Amino acid sequence: MTDNVKPSSLASVAAGNANRAPGKNALGTGLEARKVHAWFGKNHVLSDISLDFAAGTVTALIGPSGCGKSTFIRTLNRMHEFIPTAAMAGEVLLDGKDIYAPGIDVTKIRLKIGMVFQKPNPFPSMTIGENVLSGLRLAQLKRSDKDQLMEECLVRAGLWNEVKDRLDAHGGSLSGGQQQRLCIARSLAVNPQVLLMDEPCSALDPGSTLRIEETIRELSETMTIIIVTHNMQQAARISDYTAFFLADGHPGVMVETGPTSEIFSNPKDKRTENYVTGRFG
Amino acid sequence: MSTNTIATPKPKKPWRPTPKALIPTYLGILATILGTWILIEFTGLAGKLGAFASAVFLTTLISSLIAGLQRGKQAAKNAAVAAIITSGALVAVFPVVSILGTVIARGVKGIYLGFFTTDMGLASVNDPLNVGGILHAIVGTALMIVIATLVSVPLGISTAIYLTEIKGPGTRLIRFLIQAMSGVPSIVAGLFIYSALISGSGRGFNGLFGAFALAILMLPTVARTAEEVLLLIAQDLREAGLALGATQWRTVAMVVVPAAKSGLITAVILGVARIAGETAPLLFTTGGGDVTNLNPVDGVMGSIPFAIWKALISGSEESNARAWASILVLLVLVMVLFFSARRLGKVRR
């Protein structure tokens, strides 16, 4: 529906978001990146990113491909370290505690900071229902009201009505958009404090995208959401804050951050203005 | 860039344990070694097996205990499973290392320069070790491997392409036959060539027949491995080629096969490794000569496995040393082949 909105009108779309008071019943005190750098081997890909993600807000990370947005959100739940040549510097604080501190149990961190990936990845050997509850089994969490939880997660992910009659079907039988909402439902079941989303709508049609955007807005009542997106309209529609990343032949840096309405209506940096008005990128 | 004014910090890997965090691990290793020693000294457990069993048991126990104390029950289970699986991998690697060690220790005694430049034409296996060599066997094995490869690789890869790309009539039957063929005992391959090409035909033993027998064994290995490799190539790639207006032949030749290159080379290596040490198919086909013969279509031809067999059944100290030296040569040959093919097949990124 909104994919043909002109960039100039983004500011007015974003202005609507500012009226909502974010984080009314938020969990914890949010996430904070402090002077985060990232490397792959000798290649310095991300330089000096400091960003606050207040509890119960939605933050959009925008910027051209290859500027380090995805690398950045992977440092936020310690997925970055899976790449053998990876290195980093700086701190990531969850409720004021550095998730990279020695002695921290990394599995507990990932339980609190969930992630939805670019490509829908439901577990192929599990049914739709099992997929939703897979986090409980994987992390060995005890819940007595599993059926209720399953329904709740699917409802919150906007998928319940479409799958309630075929919970025993395999996840692969769903369409791409449905699979992605299933993955969102799956990450909700373990009740994360923060949800990271890496271009969750990049492979989806506008209808599915709309459903997921509604889901994100609803989820922000109870969790902190950080979303990487290439869709500027999407950033304007759903986020409270926006951060603009740029690499430009150097390590990726954060050019500007602020309330989404300001980034889109009154950016301070010329490069941000060029990007959000569609002059490049 | 505005941020370049700030000094760049050093890249760190905070997920790696700090030296201080490793202290419990070191203590655990120490406790395991000590505990193993105590179990061996003061209980009924004895020998290498007993030591290994107690070491595995204690490693599992102590590592899960440390993880459990630090990070709870689930971390303890994780550490226990990791310890058991690591021990399993060690058990699997142990025989290989042991065989390699034995072969090297015993084999080097029989090796001298002439071992590679002379044959057994004028020497007997019981002669002193500085007389004669296995040039005839090296030449024979090399020639037969090359011929068998030339025969079975085109056939095997074509079969795999038929099964995965063309999928024409009889695909399932061919797949079944190839699978059945890989179960054929190697001596049957030799007997088949003997009865089909040698017995009653007036033709004598030669290297070509040996190579044919080897090709029969190599073909199913190459075909099956190549099929598995081609199946791993994503359907998207084929569709992308076809969508550019290519014929199926061009798509397979320019997109699918190059994408599967390293896997196909692995298929060839596995095939060669399958036949390099075969003795039985050569018994009825090559005649196992002692003189270096460069002509595969005329006269008996030696091979390394045959030379090993011949030397071992003689039983003297010299012949045994000769056999071990030949085993070492065969092993090194297969390894060199393996590593060079690995190198060739490495995908450049």
Describe the structure.
The complex is a heterodimer of chains A (281) and B (349). Chain A has 281 residues and is an alpha/beta fold. Chain A has helices spanning 10-18, 69-76, 106-112, 128-138, 146-156, 160-163, 176-188, 206-219, 232-238, 260-265, 270-276, and strands at 31-40, 43-53, 58-62, 86-94, 97-98, 113-116, 194-198, 224-228, 241-246, 253-259. In chain A, strands 6-7-8-3-9-10 form a six-stranded mixed β-sheet, with helices on both faces. The longest helix of chain A is centred in the C-terminal third of the chain and has 14 residues, at 206-219. Chain B is mainly alpha-helical and 349 residues long. Chain B folds into two domains: 23-109; 135-344, MetI-like (MetI-like fold, Orthogonal Bundle). In chain B, 71% of the residues lie in helices and 0% in strands. Chain B contains 14 helices and no strands. In chain B, helix 9 crosses helix 10. The radius of gyration of chain B is 28 Å and the shape is globular. Chain A binds chain B through residues 35, 37, 39, 44, 47-48, 78, 81, 86-90, 100-103, 105-107, 140, 248, 250, 253, and chain B through 1-4, 6, 8-15, 17-18, 20-21, 70-72, 74-75.
This entry's quaternary arrangement is heterodimer
* Uncertain stretches of chain B: none
| Mean of residue pLDDT values of chain A | 86
The greatest inter-chain interface is formed by:
A-B, 24 and 22 residues
CATH architecture of the largest domain in chain B: Orthogonal Bundle
Quantity of strands of chain B, as a count: 0
Q: What does the main sheet of chain A amount to? A: 6 strands, mixed
CATH topology of the largest domain in chain B: MetI-like fold
CATH class of the largest domain in chain B: Mainly Alpha
Tally of separate helices of chain B: 14
Distance between the termini of chain B: 30 Å
Structural class of chain A: alpha/beta
- The Cα radius of gyration of chain B reads 28 Å
Q: Please describe the biggest sheet of chain B, giving its number of strands, its sense, and whether it closes into a barrel.
A: none
Low-pLDDT segments of chain A: 1-8, 16-26
Question: What's the pLDDT, averaged over the residues of chain B?
Answer: 88
